[in-house]
Amino acid sequence: MRLAFMGSPDFAVPALQALVAAGHEVAAVYCQPPRPAGRGQRETPCPVHRAALELGLPVRTPARVKRDEAEHAAFAALELEAAVVAAYGLILPQPMLDAPRRGCLNIHASLLPRWRGAAPIHAAVLAGDAETGVTIMQMEAGLDTGPMLLAESTPIDPRDTTAAVHDRLAEIGARLILRALDEAPAPVPQPEAGVTYAPKLSKADAVLDWRKDAAALDRRVRAMTPWPGAQFRLGEDTIRLLAAIPAAGEPGAAPGTVLDGTPRVACGNGTALTLLRLQRAGRGAMEAAEFLRGRPLPAGTVLG
Q1: DSSP-derived secondary structure letter, 54
Q2: How far is CA 42 from the centre of its chain?
């Protein structure tokens, strides 16, 4: 089948590879333009761009497509059977949605209509959802509102991070999009009840509020791993917290107070959180014991 593939991050790479391996003709790969990255701020192509080059596929990186009539015409000229979209990062206008004969199929990393929007995996972990999954959706102009073609669920383990769930969903998405193209299932409208939204994250979402109880903070740490990375203040330093686990608290302890050398930190509602893996700015990630050798946290220290 003659296709275009539209995606940018790591999540989309397994789907692109699966489409090529299954023998589909990928006429063009669309992804975000290269951007400065790393200490040298060198222009760096996104993961899908790199994967497409390795597969010998033509790549297009328009900075915007919404009102670019020339880009709309170029897309239509590909004469596609379908377009597969997976975390592309740009909103497709109606002329591009309508151009492929079978339209545009989106690989969305949630069980719609729960967690429409930009950060569905983070949102599911942060909310403490028992499961999530992938929905293959027929795209329309609304934000993740199109009818559903296929869906597959996976449980969220109590210790899962966003990174772990992300990798499972990427593989599910790759498998499911092949089925959707082969089977052409009938579209099913999304239910009107149960709609939730997962807005785009910022670094502000990663700041820990020790007044929250330990279970909520544990979910935030896992939801923000690997990006943007949960963080707190220690004096003038910003510390990333990469792993933690709820622990027994001490009645009356002020939230943010280090209780012992574990290190265990007091949280809201009389709970506590044991810090397991941390990272100082400009340093590598460390287990708590190694971190404490270079930056002690004596009992009574108050974290911001």
Answers
A1: H
A2: 24
CA–CA dist 178, 188 (Å, integer): 18
Domains of the chain, earliest start first: 2-198 (3.40.50.170), 203-294 (3.10.25.10)
3-state secondary structure of 300: coil
Beta pairing class for 2-7 and 25-30: parallel
The mean per-residue pLDDT over the stretch 11-40 comes to 94
Average pLDDT, the chain: 96
Percent of the chain whose predicted confidence (pLDDT) is above 70: 100
Which H or E run includes 50? helix 47-54
Helix 47-54 crosses helix 13-21 at what angle (to 10 degrees)?
20
Which residues partner with 106 through β-bridges? 85, 137
Closest CA to 132 of 147, 119, 149: 119
User: What does the alpha-carbon distance between residue 288 and residue 70 come to, in Å, rounded to a whole number?
Assistant: 55
Q: What tokens were used for 51? A: 């994967």
Asked if the peptide bond before residue 120 counts as cis, ω within 30 degrees of 0, the response is: no
- Please tell me the pTM assigned to this model: 0.95
